[in-house]
Design goal:
Strand content: 15-25%
Shape: globular
Distance between the termini: 14 Å
Number of strands: 22
């Protein structure tokens, strides 16, 4: 399968002294890389994660983690920590607009906005997990600490400077900041090394999409605004001001905030006093005590890799798809990427699936990544403009429930059942293969979505007689579901069943003409009739 034998120079490698063999090397210690490490550990795989920076992100960056992402945090057993980390912003859910933060008001509730609020109000019925506001600089330490506590080898301050791959695996050359360079051998490499991804560049993988959209500047600052926002706890606040337009972002709801605006000539020479005055102007408090913590220039654009893998290397997160930060779409898509990839790598490493299963990573995730990046790019690349589009009657109409919970993979590691594709204009996945399993509570704390565990689970109706023996022969965990609404939603009769993948995607439905015993090897690409 792999006929590449080439040295990829990311930087000058220097000399190396130490060698070791690991199953999966992860390059990148952000949301994608850390989540991948935890998911692989959950699957019984011992990855090594390297990150060239000494610490996690110092910038708030992504904040809105949707229920599909927090479902993954539930699987990882870290939801309590995530909710604690997101508690300061639990009530900061609204969107404001004004010439300054001081005079900003809630938007007029138009019919379009009312429809969207109603749709979003239905989300808790469709998932066991909440949507949370948790700044990336707060979430990443939670993920890192969880990985370290579980024994994952997490090596911050270590740079991957070059790598080779061939039929035998990956050889990576690493350079720690405080030690001698060394090399490791790995079966696979996950490139979670950001939008500029030296690994993707070294592989020569081109990118497509709309390209550059806007140049932005984020100013993170400290100021006590608790009293100012007491009656208007906001998530985002759009500002239209002659001094600077953009948007305020709540970081902790009391004294840490971010102002995002268009980059402009001379921004680097404005000086601390100039930035403090500008912030006082857009906040609307002339004598505000303000401390500028950091400034970050960033490009908003749509860049999607044409291939999400090359040989034994897999791109994830921004390395695969850079997009404007609409509702933290990039970070949420990154988490879905690695949830899709981790179990497949584990199955191949365990010998229960052939390496051909890994081809389904691109087949499944590329269309989703491209579509998400394209949608996020429709409102230009400035945060204020994107915020305005959310409340505009002219904004593209999509069903958020369908987009979040009802999307179906076109092809991949599942066996179609002949029912045709899931609708795109409304939520109705109906348990189709290639869609996320619908949520129903099995008891006070366990959802059908929580049954996405290492290995495969056979969910069946209350009449499980016909499935018990077969599940035993195939080594499947069998769970009977008697919830009548869930059975109706998944179009399962009392004696029906569906096969659940470790990423909560339905792999097979008993309405298929393909028997379960034949479906499992097809799903794992161990038969001649594999779906991809």
């Amino acid at each position: 399968m792999y006929n590449v034998h080439k040295m990829y120079d990311v930087h000058d490698p220097g000399g190396y002294e130490m060698t070791a063999r690991i199953p999966v090397l992860i390059c990148g210690g952000g949301i994608a890389g850390l989540t991948a490490a935890l998911l692989l550990h959950r699957e019984g795989v011992a990855p090594v994660l390297v990150e060239k920076h000494a610490g996690t992100s110092p910038q708030p960056k992504a904040r809105r983690f949707n229920p599909r992402s927090t479902e993954v945090f539930r699987w990882l057993g870290i939801m309590d920590q995530v909710e604690q980390a997101s508690a300061p912003l639990a009530s900061f859910t609204g969107m404001l607009s004004g010439t300054t933060l001081a005079d900003a008001t809630w938007p007029e509730v138009t019919e379009t906005l009312r429809e969207r609020l109603v749709q979003h109000g239905k989300m808790p019925d469709l998932s066991p997990a909440p949507s949370v506001l948790c700044p990336q600089d707060v979430l990443e330490p939670v993920l890192r600490q969880a990985a370290i506590e579980r024994g994952v080898s997490v090596r911050f301050g270590t740079e991957l400077v070059s790598f080779e791959q061939d039929d035998a695996g990956i050889t990576a050359h690493l350079r720690p900041a405080d030690g001698e360079p060394y090399q490791v051998s790995a079966d696979y490499l996950i490139a979670a090394d950001g939008a500029r991804s030296p690994i993707r560049t070294a592989l020569g993988i081109p990118r497509s999409g709309h390209g550059h959209l806007a140049d932005n500047l984020d100013v993170c600052f400290r100021a006590d605004l608790a009293e100012l926002v007491r009656d208007k706890p906001f998530n985002l606040c759009r500002i239209e001001n002659p001094a600077a337009s953009g948007a305020f972002v709540s970081v902790n709801g009391t004294d840490r905030w971010l102002f995002s605006t268009s980059d402009f000539p001379g921004s680097d020479s404005l000086g601390e006093d100039g930035w403090r005055e500008l912030l006082r102007t857009v906040v609307g408090v002339p004598d505000l005590e303000v401390e500028v913590l950091s400034r970050m220039h960033w490009e908003s654009g749509m860049y999607v890799a044409d291939r999400f893998s090359s040989g034994r290397v897999f791109l994830a997160g921004d390395a695969a798809h850079a997009m404007p930060p609409m509702a933290a779409a990039g970070a949420n898509t990154a988490i879905a990427d690695v949830a899709n990839l981790a179990w497949k790598l584990a199955a191949v490493l365990a010998g229960t699936a052939t390496p051909a299963l890994l081809d389904t990573y691109h087949a499944e995730r590329y269309p989703i990544g491209y579509a998400t990046a394209e949608f996020s790019s429709m409102a230009s690349g400035h945060l204020g403009t994107m915020l305005a589009s959310i409340t505009s009657d002219d904004a593209p109409r999509i069903d958020p429930l369908a987009a979040l919970f009802g999307v179906q993979y076109e092809r991949g590691a599942f066996v179609p059942d002949g029912r045709g594709p899931a609708p795109e204009d409304r939520y109705d996945p109906a348990g189709r293969p290639g869609t996320r399993v619908p949520h129903a509570w099995l008891d006070a704390s366990t959802s059908t979505v929580d049954l996405a565990v290492p290995g495969f689970v056979l969910l069946c109706g209350p009449d499980s007689t016909r499935w018990a023996a077969e599940a035993g022969r195939l080594g499947l965990r069998l769970v009977s579901v008697s919830d009548e609404a869930w059975l109706a939603e998944t179009e399962l009769p009392a004696d029906g069943a569906l096969l659940l993948r470790p990423d909560a995607i339905v792999g097979w439905h008993s309405s298929s003409e393909v028997p379960l015993a034949d479906a499992l090897p097809r799903l794992l690409n161990t038969s001649a009739e594999a779906p991809v």
